[in-house]
Amino acid sequence: MASGCSKNVESRPLLLDLIPQRREWHHVKREDEIKDGSSEEKKLELRLGPPGEENWLSSIRNNTEGDESLLSPGYFSSSMKNNGKLAHKFPCPEDNHPVGVGSVLSTPWGKNHHQQQTKTCSFLQFPSTTAPPNSLPFMAKESSQPCSNKVVDLQDAERKAFKPPANTAVPLNTSHKRTAPGPVVGWPPIRSIRKNLASSSKLSSDSPSVDPPQKVASEKPGAEPNGKGLFVKINMDGVPIGRKVDLKAYDSYEKLSTAVDELFRGLLAAQRDSSAGGIVNEEDGEKAITGVLDGSGEYTLIYEDNEGDSMLVGDVPWHMFVLTVKRLRALKSSELSALCLGSGKQGGR
Amino acid sequence: MLWGSRKTINMNYFPDEVLEHVFDFITSHKDRNSVSLVCKSWYKIEKYSRQRVFLGNCYAICPERLIARFPELKSLTLKGKPHFADFNLVPDDWGGFLYPWIKAMAKSRIGLEELKLKRMVVSDESLELLSKSFPNFKSLVLVSCEGFTTDGLAAIASNCRFLRELDLQENEVEDHRGHWLSCFPESCTSLVSLNFACLKGEINLASLERLVARSTNLKSLRLNRAVPFDTLQRLLIRAPQLVDLGTGSYVHDPSSEAYNKFKAAIQSCNSIRSLSGFLEVAPRCMSAIYPICENLTFLNLSYAAGLQSNELTKLIQHCRKLQRLWILDCIGDKGLGVVASTCKELQELRVFPSNPFDAGNAAVTEEGLILVSEGCPKLNSLLYFCQQMTNAALITVANCTNFIRFRLCILDPIKPDPVTNQPLDEGFGAIVRSCKGLKRLSLSGLLTDQVFYYIGMYAKKHEMLSIAFAGDSDKGMLYVLNGCKKLRKLEIRDCPFGDAALLEDMGEYETMRSLWMSTCDVTLGACKMLAKKMPNLNVEIINESEQTESNLDDSQKVDKMYLYRTLVGHREDAPEFVWLL
Hints:
Mean pLDDT of chain A: 54
Largest sheet of chain B: 21 strands, mixed
Strand content of chain B: 15-25%
Helix content of chain B: 25-40%
Structural class of chain B: alpha/beta
Largest sheet of chain A: 6 strands, mixed
Oligomer: heterodimer
Radius of gyration of chain B: 26 Å
Number of helices of chain A: 11
Number of helices of chain B: 20
């Protein structure tokens, strides 16, 4: 096996060429590169049965006799995962016997396999095998979502050659290795109560934060942390007196929206009364303030975040919103387009 | 001596009362189930003497049949939604409603005294009916339930004259900010345990103080965030006999009068063995509790995100008798080293993530786990959220052979061993091989079919297995189903297990309580086939897309499938998005 390995590498300097390409793929995500990659991958693919199968050794030999390397390209991608980000895995054409990256290298049967691994590692001098995870800085910029979709498309294409088609389910279902694109529903497996702990406590304690700066909202003016709540100012257009609202008392945008209604309904009515010169139109009375989240009402909620940008309320999950909000404003929906919105969404929804 | 003689002693010559008395000593549910299978008369005696019933799945049987089976029922435990509902994988309204049970028991004049519920939907209406239907009702424990408000609690407080225990753990309660606590009548002095830590709203503090003052048997008190430090101190003065304390807000100025009073009050609480809460905590104030630390057996600081590692370690150094510790990962690996060197009696450790969505920054790694496993010889239960894990570390940890529960959650769910780049098959393999008593296992990290091979081969006592983002093929699931004969609950998400695995041994599912598979490769057709062939199983599909059952063809993969054994066929309360096959 070892000899096969060195022979392979000598006859395939292309393997080394693939490595930089792969890096670029992770970074740039160009479709043409990926397609090239897939045909290479097919050739390089190592078909391994799961442990226990008699003929898997022979299948390795069959595969290595040709132009294939001992190491599937998946090996490289897995080491690239060290950065802790959810990287995609190279697709494997065979459904039932895909190459788990580890399975190539970690089967218990052969100590010799372990040796091979280290041999090939050092031979190819792939840095990530021995370096600590952070040695692959390019990975930090990777956003895996578009990649994983493409990976999955390739898998689908390859799969069709081996299995009857007609899988129209969510792409994630088809990849043999789950590549989670960004935050995954239900992962990590903790209850909702535990999800915002760090943010809500940093606002209540006065100890120095150990988190990167963008997580800490308490040091900047605007949001007043005290032991009991996160109070931010809220103003409504046309109402000269502002209010303060405790965001920790709510856990959803709906509740905030209700609170806005409660806080300003009376004030707004009073304002209308006075501006109408004392003529009270009974129908107006105290009208509920609704539709602040979806642009359907008279007012729309926006907020100023810790970077000073004006943002539309409701885009990000509640707990993230609470982390970055500095002050709130209920803008007249008709004036929304006049404002330059930091999120790039202009003219409301 | 007896076997040789021609006369043999026949247990049935004893009067029923004697047998019943004997059966009283048999408390385990499994044993009592076995007793009832011996013969008809034993079945009958056991049936009428059975007071405690545990139903792991409320849909396995219907209330009427339960009552017919055990007419003397006094204590009922019910579990509703599947475990993954805790992580938002099950939509609201899926099911698990309490009301039908209360209604049936009320109608049949069951003398219910204790009710323990987990992941059920509990309406105010059901709480009210409960409070009015069972005059001897003593204990209500709700864990991870939802659907009720403080109005329901008010009904319980008002009407359950002999209430001893009201224990609310991590429920979703709509707080109407009413005065439910004030609804406990002045004549109610029977409370032994009161836990309302999960309530978000304000509490009538004066009522609380009066209630605690007159509940001389109170042993367990867990407050919510709205109870300020002042009140805590006054409560402690009134209840120095407390064994279990959950603080509310623990934010105060160390130089204040209140702090000094608290220090004095807590000194006389030398029965406290269990401490939790700290839902809000200011640093530098933990020294006040050092005096009671040396007697603590359970410490839960898993909500105290305001405490840094050095404070945590200073505190833990006082806790030499600790048996169970729940903590946040800000304690760090070094902090876990302090735990390892101090807490030699430690049996259970849970380390929760303080930054769950930042996989690169979790403060504990495999180092911390190694230290604890080496330092705490009695460790048998683990829940560990970490940034990374290595095979070498797991192999070392496997030397701690006592594990009954081993749940490892690497925040990046498919992360390999960062040192060797290999999957964690070998590490977990070592765990299942060495820990022969392992009953519950949760896996994470990069894993291939190999780990399931090991599990199937060695994990003979496994009862619950949680798998996510693991495996390569159907073989993985088959190894588990074929090897783990004691498996009761299997939950799988995002794994490449498909129809072949699902359908290979359908009879297996009747020996299990339930199977959950989501985002796997199982098709609708296979689920239908399974449902058709196994009438004692309910196969349910949770479909959150817009497609209706008629649009979907059999070769399409299902997103979420939950199947469970049942004696009563399809349930009647399933919402539209749940298809009962």
